[in-house]
Amino acid sequence: MTDIAELETQTLAAIAAAADEAALEAVRVGALGKKGGISALLSTLGKMSPDERKTEGAKINALKDRAAEAIAARRDVLQAQALEKRLSAETLDVTLPVQETGQELGRIHPISQVMDELTAIFADMGFSVAEGPDIESDDYNFTKLNFPEGHPAREMHDTFFFAPGEGGKRKLLRTHTSPVQVRTMLSKAPPIRVICPGRTYRCDSDQTHTPMFHQVEGLVIDETTHMGHLKWALEEFLKSFFEVTSVKMRFRPSFFPFTEPSAEVDVQCRRQGGDIRFGEGEDWMEILGCGMVHPNVLRNCGLDPDKYQGFAFGVGIDRLAMLKYGMSDLRAFFEADVRWLTHYGFRPLDFPTLAGGLSG
Fold this sequence. Notes:
Layout: H1 4-17, H2 21-32, H3 37-43, H4 50-89, H5 102-105, H6 110-124, E1 128-129, E2 135-137, H7 138-141, E3 171-173, H8 178-187, E4 192-201, E5 212-222, H9 227-242, E6 249-256, E7 259-272, E8 275-278, E9 283-293, H10 295-300, E10 309-316, H11 317-325, H12 338-344
Parallel strand pairs: 1-4
Antiparallel strand pairs: 2-3, 4-5, 5-10, 6-7, 7-8, 7-9, 9-10
């Protein structure tokens, strides 16, 4: 028979040495489990005489009780140590500043901000927003806008064409948002007053040009619209967007296939260091193109040019953002640099309004 005193010494030593509850459970199973050392001693009682069974049984049961008590005591100690360790690791320093939430850390991209500003400005003037697909037909992007087949004006746009489809016709990435104007005139009867913001694509890349950029165009069609209305709309837009009380504009004759007469619009400004301030100074900056909708465009869209007339204009959204918020390189808009976005971005809940200011 295994010496009871020796087994007790080994068992109590193993209990005291258990470093965690998993180790203590292993000791318990090794001593009190079905095949444990103490349980093995109890199984030998059946082979003893009645007198031996009485004497040895009392010793073995006493050992079992002491082992169980030691295990329970050690478990209490280990649980207290584990709790202390957890409380120490999870201590919260209430004097530390509160961490910003994702909503507070996130930023609205300047392009999205400017689009919201444009929408607010033109909505105040009665314009609605019209949208169309980025992939367009040659007919909507060029032909219906008075770009004849083979006309050199088509080369002005450095177009991204897709492979020819059925009938040899090629789809393309729209070079301007003017196809949205076409779709609007084809689907809606005058009077029409819409802006068409969206992505456009041209094969060009440098500090002030990117292969994909953003543009907003405006279209007004009715029976009485004239150049005076166009001038007023642009003036109100520029004053609101740049948040100045007045702007001076000059219209220079230009050429666009889809407008006649056509003009480039310069805005008076003052250059000081790296800043550009509108509404003051003696310099001029070209900012957008515009004109009266060409009669051929009206005919191509099913409207009678003897009855209807209107104006259209277009301006780069990325360029507006650069001018208003002091960004020097257009390529940074598309590099996904979080540091840049943190600096130039806008807080998500700072919605632009004409009453509360547009730039926040």
